[in-house]
Write a structure and sequence with these properties.
Distance between the termini of chain A: 36 Å
Strand order of the largest sheet of chain A: 1-30-31-32-33
CATH architecture of the largest domain in chain B: Orthogonal Bundle
Number of domains of chain B: 2
CATH superfamily of the largest domain in chain B: Cytochrome c-like domain
Strand content of chain A: 25-35%
Oligomer: heterodimer
Largest interface: A-B, 46 and 47 residues
Mean pLDDT of chain B: 91
Shape of chain B: globular
Number of strands of chain A: 36
Shape of chain A: globular
Number of helices of chain B: 11
Low-confidence stretches of chain B: 1-15
Largest sheet of chain A: 5 strands, mixed
Mean pLDDT of chain A: 93
Helix content of chain A: under 10%
Low-confidence stretches of chain A: 1-40
Order of helices and strands of chain B: HHHHHHHHHHH
Distance between the termini of chain B: 23 Å
CATH topology of the largest domain in chain B: Cytochrome Bc1 Complex, Chain D, domain 2
Strand content of chain B: under 5%
Chain lengths: 573, 191
């Protein structure tokens, strides 16, 4: 762990770290390129390839499969009939043993994966052989709430792009791993940092920010893919964040707000927008027909102490749409106004056709909430069409946090965490992974601590209560749960569904399972050495379909850590 | 690490390496050593180990002592005369030293209570499982348990108030838990 840091330390007291890094980096780049000739010069990812990713059974170009973020991979060589013969094709061990949340990206037989602390590897996707390795030269200030994670690169043109823990956006040459440029997105001292993979479209790199636990002011920014210049910025918290003083959440439950006291505080102290949080730390869905970009905005800061931030705290805990060209606001829907439980909106939204409740098929947006519901919206105005049956227990929701801690379900990790859902449009099912993790919510009056962790209290896991997880299949046209498979531990990572009628997702105990998409029957499983808590991907090279997933465990739920990228294919191929 | 002198020589950096970047704070360093030990490798359980601590954490603590955000009768006056540039140099100096081993053992009972407390508080989400520190998060593994216990208590009572979320969390911890966690962390890295 932290190999670079330790290497830099105690190396002679007066030599600056920078000179030393030069030595190490020179070593790394000597291992570079072989990739260039492997499959011809096919590193370049065009806009056309990205636009057609939903039907591309060779590559895996987007963190969540395609711009609609369906995580529905069309290939069917591996399918519900033969998946029981799936076996390990190769394993690649990274240098960093720590939580892995990377989605492997595959471009014409070259795979790109990232690790905690922002290492990037390019691998031969057929053999797992390393082509190059890039270690980001980390600045002194990094911030994270839930591990030094990274969720992967985005390939675009002849580059791949990554966000870093010290709040930078880095562009690398896809062939060599050399850095083309980097820009600082925001001041890391104030708690800004990056764990999400960016999204590239029409010459722009879109990226949000972490920091909802630090009193940042959230944003989504668009950068020029070639030059790294800022094209537009959307503040996720408007200067007037008070909203409509909503008393009930999206599912119709009373949130127990003291609106009178909040109004008084608002009059007295003004709008809290400057330190209100509202991070965006998962990818956005892009509607290529309308040019709308959909993302979900995280919790208000501080998480638990609401009195200091009166109002609905727009647009925290919301689905928001902006215009791709200008970043201008289009519509929003807030799930929880004035959240004091950290039950924010995180899991990436999905665009798909849905029933509008009157029997018409309309373009919809799906979101798996930390509350443990799947929400279904109209894409044109963000309005809510329906919410599903709850996937997890809602015992005591809503109970206000207290000084000594009040128990409630879901716990602060959800419901559904950041884990991306997948859908199978032929079945109208959305697949979500859930946590049943009882917690107590503690509140404490806390002024803004100037860039330090700012929870306004504490969340505590109730050690004596049992925890578990589910894989849930939700019919997004009716809101009914079609099937549900229980798992030993709370689930975190992500889901992939395929044209072969299978759903793949991993667990903290190292199990990686394939379920029948229609019935939830377990068709295959593999046991990795560490927790499988990253979203799976799939690709085809040399006539074989592969499934690939990272097994690095998870720091937030303390699942056994590891460093493996594992690729699977059918036996005998 | 043994190869490094060779690498420096090859790169012609030896000359540069002889320039003392810490010259502006050498005098202050001597004062620090008088309590925190030679090179910050404190052997006195009342004084925290600084050698090998995180650069950014150390810098922020010095700033907070100076501003009074971390209120301490010994370190407050010590930091009051320091400029930001000096704080950075001092922090850099200590962060580059080797963390000393204090060779400490926790009892099985302390270990057990610590593990359950750490799990309930989700401590590793920030500290990572080794408690080795990273940037704004201090190294706690192998720190003097007596100091750790004091600082956990000070968080709880808000005598130490420069990381409010720690106060909320420690506020929910019992005395027994605080003692156990301090012992467990102190013993991390010693076998």
């Amino acid at each position: 762990m932290l190999i670079r840091k330790h290497a830099m330390r105690r190396t002679g007291q007066t030599l600056s770290g920078v000179a030393l890094m030069t030595v190490f980096c020179a070593g790394a780049s000597a291992e570079e390129v072989q990739g260039g000739t492997l499959y011809g010069d096919m590193h370049v990812v065009t806009q056309d390839m990205l636009d057609h990713a939903y039907g591309d059974a060779n590559n895996f170009l987007h963190t969540n499969g395609n711009y609609a973020q369906t995580r529905y991979y069309p290939a069917r060589q591996i399918n519900r009939e033969n998946v029981h013969t799936l076996e390990k094709a190769w394993v690649f061990e990274t240098e960093v043993v720590e939580s892995m949340e990377t989605t492997p990206i595959v471009v014409n037989g070259i795979m790109y994966v990232t690790t905690a602390f922002n290492h990037v590897y390019a691998l031969n996707a057929e053999t797992g052989e390393q082509l190059w390795h890039f270690k980001h030269e980390m600045g002194p200030i990094t911030t994270y709430c839930c591990g030094p994670n990274n969720r992967g690169v985005f390939p675009y043109g002849d580059k791949v792009y990554m966000g870093t823990l010290d709040a930078k956006l880095v562009a690398l040459n896809a062939k060599t791993g050399e850095k083309a440029w980097e820009v600082e997105l925001a001041d890391p001292e104030l708690g800004y940092s990056e764990t999400m993979a960016p999204t590239a479209v029409d010459g722009k790199i879109l990226i949000g920010t972490n920091g909802g636990e630090y009193g940042i002011r959230g944003f989504v920014k668009a950068y020029d893919a070639e030059t790294g210049e800022l094209v537009w910025n959307f503040d996720t918290v408007p200067e007037d964040s008070k909203g409509v003083w909503a008393t009930h959440d999206a599912t119709g439950r009373d949130m127990m707000r003291d609106i009178t006291a909040e109004r008084v505080a608002y009059e007295k102290n003004g709008d809290p927008y400057k330190t209100l949080g509202g991070g965006v730390w998962q990818n956005m869905a892009v509607d290529r027909e309308t040019g709308m970009v959909y993302f979900v905005v995280g919790n208000p800061s501080p998480d638990l102490y609401g009195a200091i931030r009166p109002g609905d705290n727009l647009y925290t805990d919301s689905l928001v749409a902006v215009d791709l060209e200008t970043g201008s606001y289009q519509c929003h829907f807030q799930y929880i106004a004035h959240d004091v439980w950290d039950l924010d909106a995180v899991s990436p939204p999905i665009i798909t056709m849905v029933d509008d409740g009157a029997g018409n098929q309309v373009k919809g947006i799906l979101h798996g909430g930390k509350t443990g519901y799947v929400y279904v919206h109209r894409a044109d105005d963000c309005s809510l069409i329906r919410f599903s049956d709850p996937m997890v227990s809602q015992t005591g929701r809503w109970t206000l946090p207290t000084k000594d801690g009040a128990p409630m379900l879901p716990g602060a990790n959800g419901g559904v965490e950041w884990s991306p859902m997948a859908i199978d449009p032929s079945l109208n099912l959305a697949y979500a992974i859930n946590l049943h993790q009882p917690m107590t919510y503690h509140v404490e009056e806390t002024p803004y601590p100037e860039g330090k962790l700012w929870l306004g209290g504490a969340f505590k896991v109730i050690a004596t209560e049992q925890q578990w997880g589910n894989v849930s299949a939700v019919d997004y046209n009716t809101g009914k749960i079609r099937w549900k498979a229980k798992t030993e531990q709370p689930m975190i990572g992500g889901v992939l569904a395929t044209g072969g009628g299978i759903v793949l997702t991993g667990e903290g105990n190292g199990l990686f399972k394939a379920y029948d998409s229609a019935s939830g029957e377990i068709l295959w499983q593999y046991k990795a050495k560490a927790g499988v808590n990253a979203p799976p991907a799939s690709y085809n090279v040399g006539g074989n379909q592969y499934i690939v997933v990272a097994a690095g465990g998870n720091v937030q739920l303390n699942y056994p850590r590891g460093n493996e990228i594992i690729a699977f294919k059918l036996a005998g191929r | 690490m043994r190869l490094l002198p060779l690498v420096f020589a090859l790169l012609g950096l030896t000359a540069q390496a002889e320039e003392d970047v810490f010259a502006p704070v050498r005098e202050q360093l001597q004062t620090c050593f008088s309590c925190h030990g030679e090179e910050g490798a404190s052997t006195n359980p009342e004084y925290p180990i600084l050698a090998g601590q995180e650069f950014y954490y150390l810098y922020v603590q010095l700033k907070d002592y100076k501003s009074g955000l971390r209120d301490n009768p010994i370190m407050g006056p010590m930091a009051s005369g320091l400029e930001k540039a000096e704080m950075k140099l001092l922090a850099e100096y200590f962060s580059e030293q080797a963390w000393p081993s204090i060779d400490y053992q926790a009892t099985p009972e302390q270990r057990q209570i610590a593990l359950s407390s750490i799990s309930a508080g989700q401590c590793v989400a920030c500290h990572l499982s080794g408690f080795e520190g990273n940037s704004r998060v201090p190294r706690a593994a192998g720190q003097h348990p007596q100091y750790l216990e004091l600082t956990l208590r000070n968080f709880k009572t808000k005598a130490r108030n420069n990381s409010p979320s720690k106060s909320s969390l420690m506020g929910s911890m019992s005395d027994e838990e605080i003692v156990g966690v301090a012992a467990y962390l102190g013993a991390l890295g010693s076998n």
